[in-house]
Amino acid sequence: MLRVGIVGCGNIAKTLADTMAAMPEEIRIEAVASRTQEKADEFASHYGAKAYGSYEALYEDENVDLVYVAVPHSHHHQVMMDALSHGKHILCEKAFTVNEKEAREVLALAKEKGLYVGEAIWTRYMPSRYMIDSIIKEGKIGRVTSMCASLGYKISQKPRIADPRLAGGALLDICIYPLTFVLMAAGDATLSGMAGLCKKSEDGVDLSDTISLSFNNGVTASVYSDTEAVTSRNGWIYGTEGSIEVYNVNNPERICIYSADRTPVLRETIEINHEINGYEYELRAAKDAIEHGRTEPDAMPWSETLRVMRLMDTFRRVWGIKLASELDG
Question: Domains in the chain, please, with CATH?
Fold first, then answer.
C-alpha cells in the first residue's frame, strides 16, 4: 500500500485524489496539506484523510510515503526540496520546475537520499504512448518524415497562466503536451535544431508559442500552443507510407491510421479507454518503482525531465521571458 500526502488543493489535486480513491487496494490518501487549515479540512473530508494547515506538518507525518505536488510551478522546487529533506518520495506535476537548474537541484537531493522522484506528465505513462510506438516500429506508415501537434484553450486570464510570479505562460502549462507528443514519437532521435516564436502579454508571459524542431534522423516537427483560443488538440505523425492522427495530445482518445494516397484512406481506428481516467498509470509507476527500489520512472527518466526543461529554458531565454524566482536575479 502506497500512502500518499497531497500538497495543494486545486483542481488537479482533486482529480488525482479521485483517482487514488478508485485504487483502494493500491493507494491510500493519508493526508492533505494546504496553506490554510480550512481549505485542507474541506478537501480532506472527502477522502477520510488527515488535514494539515501547513506543508511542513505533512512532511513530518511518518505515515506518508510519497508526496504528490500539486502547487503552482513556481513552488515545485521548494516543496520537493523540503519533502525530500524529510525522506519522502515525490510525484510532481508538470512542468517539473521553473528551469533546469531547479530540476538538477531536486534530482541531486533525490539521488543523495535514494528517493523516488517522478514528473507527473500523464501522457508519458499512458498505454497510448506504446501503441503509437508500436505502429511506427511495425512500419505501418513507413519511414517517419515529419510531425505536428497543437493544443489551445481560452485560459489566458487564469492566474497560473497570467502571473509571471507563478511561472505562468503557455510553454510550461500547455505547450509541454504537444512538445512531449513529438519528443515521444521521435524516440531515440536527438535534436539537431530548433526555432521558435511567441506572443507575449504585457506582464511578460508567453500567450502562444510556435516551435519548430529537427532531429538527427531527418525528421522535423512543428508544435503550437495558445492560451487565448481553442485550437485543434490533435497530433499527426507523417510517414512515407501513411500517417497517424492522434485525437487530443493532452489525453489521447483515438488513434487513426491513414494510407499514403493523395486523398488518404482510413485504414484503422484504435479507440483508447482507461480503467479509471488515465492518471492511474503514473501512480502505479510510482508505486512499482518504490516497491522495487528504483528512484525514477521508466516512462519519464530524470534525463528526459532535464532535457525538456533545458529545451524550454532555451526558448524562454531567446524570448526574454523570466519567471518566478528568476525575476529577482
Answer: 2-123+279-296 (3.40.50.720), 127-273 (3.30.360.10)
